[in-house]
């Protein structure tokens, strides 16, 4: 500790950093030198030491207290404060100096009803870390309110449901160019939605089934389970039995969904083609309750694993029934009974134990048990009595969207109710369009799409997102109006969410900073990609590079070429743009260069992560650490006596030779004796010859005075430690996994 040997007074006390050098010491600086020259030290060494020892005067002693300013106090190793012992001692002194009256005043208590609050016993002040005030949530998001709307509701009814006055709703109606005469006027469901959007309220469209034909519909199924348990293989195997595969000679395109038909019964099952929980929860988050049944894939040789439990939780929270597919039953180590037992322990009530959850043993690799799985799904669908309105305007959800060079934005949708007809105007999320073409899963154009039928639609003006709802509107004008209204609402919501996230992140960052002792910087990124799924995957991959020092903030992710608004956004928040599988035109590149926005074009995810990883390393502030920069050996010791001419009030100078690296005056000195650290403290003075020096290199001799230490011995080793900034590292493994190691 820097404050060892505190009992010693005189010049030693003055070496303590932060204390004032007493005048008495100054007076005795030109003093006798008693040198204890070691037997090992040669004559020449002791002579040269004696020369620079002469230089240890007041000037040099005061210099080191100034040089202390350059000492790195913000390191992770140590801080220099007055020690508890020093402060306690100061207090003792202060007590002694108090007059009798003063001491009495301290002890006399005030009599009466209100006694003076007793002074707390003096404790040495503890250096309390600065705790920054918590950031207040400035932008509190509006409480999410959702109201049901329906065709033909009155303005008064909407006012009642939304809580907004009729007058305000009427003024909005005037603004959007709609006519009205009274509050009892009926309005269309599209106008009702537009009004609700303008006042920041979400809507749920209610479709009347009155007078419509309601028929059984096929179930829509999602496959979930633990990684490597065979979800993709099972989907592949099922796809090979699909209608598309049969009709197109086994060649199927990945279009987001496929239908497996049962020729005997004339029934069918629609499978969503995106396995995994992310797609499922993303769709749910966007309000799309597309999935009717979850197929839970569990490998018979592996059993219930963390993501199996996650899938169960997803299905339960969405209130979607499960059918278990025990896969890999062809494997020698397969133990379906064990899987069943594990599932039962997780609260899955299998049919075997009298519950209602079916479990089927399959092998995706050998395509066995698939018919049994399909049967189980149909049975489950019958149990659920799935029915849908067939006629009337369609209600549908987007399961996947992509941009096609020739055909523009394309979306794979699944109709939930009603019938979608070619030529209709639709609004999807905040996009709109006229249905130029509808294609079924084998790419054949069709005029209409009925419930549970996955189709690809063409004719949209922009690219929608997975989970967006599809609604049919009466005219192009309505479609435009509603799409504009939704865009405004979504943008408002987005900004609010971004602001909330920014404030939360700033608060979290401040917490990390105060805990970890370093500043966390932000790396804002705008992601652009060719398809929406890829943009999401790229954003997720970039987020894995998040580290305690650099926060990867995906400010926006979208589809298509880099637009001017992307550049504006990137410029406004100091972001770089990641363009994945996106062609960068020369004009876009030029604009980016003009706006000083860094653009990363990539087609291989690993290369992209490597680039961004390196950028993160560059941006990271790093952590300050102490590193041994040099070593010196003590060859002789010189003592300068203090005023009282005793050894206690003098100062010891170590005559050393730098054996390795360099010894710096601003460094932290560590004294080792027989390999053990006996003292650590700052360097009070460093001299070569008579000169104060900042550093001494390898092979040179020097005189060194260390903090409070007076007990050097010949053969001691003095290590000089200096702060270095250690930056994080970008680590990549052979499997392609990457991370930032701090
Ligand atoms: P996912 O991560 O759940 O989509 O799993 P995959 O479908 O990618 O399968 C992971 C591995 O398990 C692959 O090597 C498959 O070949 C293998 N696999 C999948 N199903 C079976 C099966 O029924 N039997 C055997 N023996 N291997 C399978």
Explain what you see:
With 742 residues, the chain is an alpha+beta fold. Strands 27-28-33-30-29-34 form a six-stranded antiparallel barrel. A six-stranded mixed β-sheet has the order 8-9-7-10-11-12, with helices on both faces. Strand 17 and strand 18 form a beta hairpin. The chain is elongated. The model is unreliable at 1-83, 93-105, 107-116, 118-142 and 248-253 (pLDDT under 50). It binds guanosine-5'-diphosphate. The site of guanosine-5'-diphosphate (GDP) has 16 residues, from helix 10.
Sequence-ordered SSE layout with sheet pairings:
Elements: H1 11-15, H2 23-27, E1 33-36, H3 43-53, H4 58-67, H5 84-97, H6 100-107, E2 146-150, E3 153-154, H7 155-162, H8 166-175, E4 186-187, H9 189-198, E5 202-206, E6 214-216, E7 220-225, H10 231-240, H11 243-247, E8 257-262, E9 267-272, H12 277-285, E10 293-299, H13 306-317, E11 322-327, H14 336-345, E12 359-361, H15 370-384, E13 387-389, E14 395-404, E15 408-417, E16 420-421, E17 425-428, E18 431-439, E19 445-446, E20 448-449, E21 454-460, E22 469-473, H16 476-516, E23 521-529, H17 532-543, E24 550-559, H18 564-573, E25 576-580, H19 586-594, E26 599-602, H20 605-619, E27 623-640, E28 651-664, E29 668-673, E30 676-688, E31 691-692, E32 695-697, E33 701-706, E34 717-726, E35 729-732, E36 738-741
The structure holds guanosine-5'-diphosphate (GDP).
């Amino acid at each position: 500790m820097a404050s060892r040997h505190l009992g010693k007074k005189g010049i030693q006390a003055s070496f303590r950093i932060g204390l004032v050098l007493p005048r008495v010491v100054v007076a005795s600086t030109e003093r006798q030198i008693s040198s204890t020259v070691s037997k090992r030290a040669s004559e020449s060494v002791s002579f040269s030491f004696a020369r620079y020892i002469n230089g240890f005067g007041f000037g040099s002693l005061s210099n080191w207290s100034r040089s202390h300013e350059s000492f790195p106090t913000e390191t992770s190793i140590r801080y220099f404060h007055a020690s508890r012992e020093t402060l306690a001692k100061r207090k003792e002194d202060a007590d002694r100096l108090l007059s009798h009256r003063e001491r009495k005043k301290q002890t006399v208590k005030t009599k009466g009803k209100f006694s003076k609050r007793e002074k707390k016993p003096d404790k040495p002040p503890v250096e309390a870390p600065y705790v920054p005030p918590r950031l207040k949530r400035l932008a509190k998001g509006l409480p999410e309110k959702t109201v049901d709307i329906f065709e033909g509701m009155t303005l008064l009814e909407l006012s009642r449901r939304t809580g907004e006055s009729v007058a305000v709703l009427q003024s909005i109606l005037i603004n959007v160019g709609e006519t009205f005469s009274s509050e009892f006027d009926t309005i269309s469901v599209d106008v009702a939605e537009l009004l609700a959007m303008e006042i920041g309220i979400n809507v749920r469209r209610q479709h009347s089934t009155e007078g419509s034909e309601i028929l059984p519909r096929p179930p829509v199924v999602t496959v979930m389970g633990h990684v490597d348990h065979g979800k993709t293989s099972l989907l592949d195997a099922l796809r090979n039995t699909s209608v598309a595969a049969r009709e197109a000679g086994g060649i199927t395109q990945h279009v987001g969904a496929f239908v497996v038909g049962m020729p005997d019964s004339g029934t069918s099952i629609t499978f969503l083609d995106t396995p995994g929980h992310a797609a499922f929860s993303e769709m749910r988050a966007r309000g799309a309750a597309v999935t009717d049944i979850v197929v839970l894939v569990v490998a018979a040789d592996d059993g219930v694993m963390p993501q199996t439990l996650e899938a169960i939780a997803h299905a339960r929270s969405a209130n979607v029934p499960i059918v278990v597919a025990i896969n890999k039953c062809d494997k020698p180590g397969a133990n379906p009974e064990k899987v069943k037992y594990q599932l039962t322990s997780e609260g899955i009530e299998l049919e075997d134990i009298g519950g209602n959850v079916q479990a089927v043993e399959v092998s995706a690799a050998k395509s066995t048990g698939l018919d049994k799985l399909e049967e189980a799904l149909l049975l489950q669908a019958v149990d659920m009595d799935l029915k849908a309105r067939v006629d009337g305007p369609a209600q549908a959800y987007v399961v996947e969207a992509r941009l096609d060079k020739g055909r523009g934005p394309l979306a794979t949708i699944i109709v939930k109710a009603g019938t979608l007809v070619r030529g209709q105007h639709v609004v999807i999320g905040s996009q709109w369009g006229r249905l130029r073409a509808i294609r079924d899963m084998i790419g054949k154009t069709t005029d209409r799409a009925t419930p549970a039928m996955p189709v690809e639609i063409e004719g949209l003006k922009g690219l929608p997102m997975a989970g967006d709802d599809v609604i049919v509107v009466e005219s192009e004008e309505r479609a435009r109006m509603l799409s504009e209204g939704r865009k405004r609402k979504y943008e408002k919501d987005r900004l609010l969410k971004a602001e909330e996230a920014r404030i939360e992140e700033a608060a979290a960052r401040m917490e990390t900073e105060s805990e970890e002792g370093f500043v966390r910087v932000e790396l804002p990124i705008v992601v652009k990609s060719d398809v929406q799924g890829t943009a999401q995957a790229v954003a997720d991959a970039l987020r894995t590079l998040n580290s305690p020092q650099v926060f990867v903030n995906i400010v926006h992710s979208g589809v298509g070429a880099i637009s001017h608004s992307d550049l504006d956004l990137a410029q406004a928040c100091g972001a770089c743009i990641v363009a994945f599988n996106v062609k960068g035109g020369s004009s876009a590149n030029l604009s980016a260069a003009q706006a000083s926005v860094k653009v990363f074009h990539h087609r291989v995810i690993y290369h992209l992560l490597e680039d961004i990883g390196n950028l993160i390393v560059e941006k990271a502030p790093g952590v300050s650490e102490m590193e041994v920069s040099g070593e010196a050996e003590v060859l002789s010791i010189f003592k300068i006596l203090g005023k009282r001419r005793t050894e206690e009030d003098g100062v010891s100078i170590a005559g050393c030779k730098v054996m390795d690296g360099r010894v710096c005056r601003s460094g932290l000195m560590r004294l080792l004796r027989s390999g053990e650290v006996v003292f650590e403290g700052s360097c009070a003075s460093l001299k070569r010859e008579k000169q104060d020096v900042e550093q001494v290199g390898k092979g040179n001799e020097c005189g060194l005075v260390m903090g409070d230490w007076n007990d050097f011995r010949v053969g001691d080793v003095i290590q000089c430690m200096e702060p270095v900034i250690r930056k994080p590292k970008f680590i990549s493994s052979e499997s392609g996994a990457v991370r930032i190691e701090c």
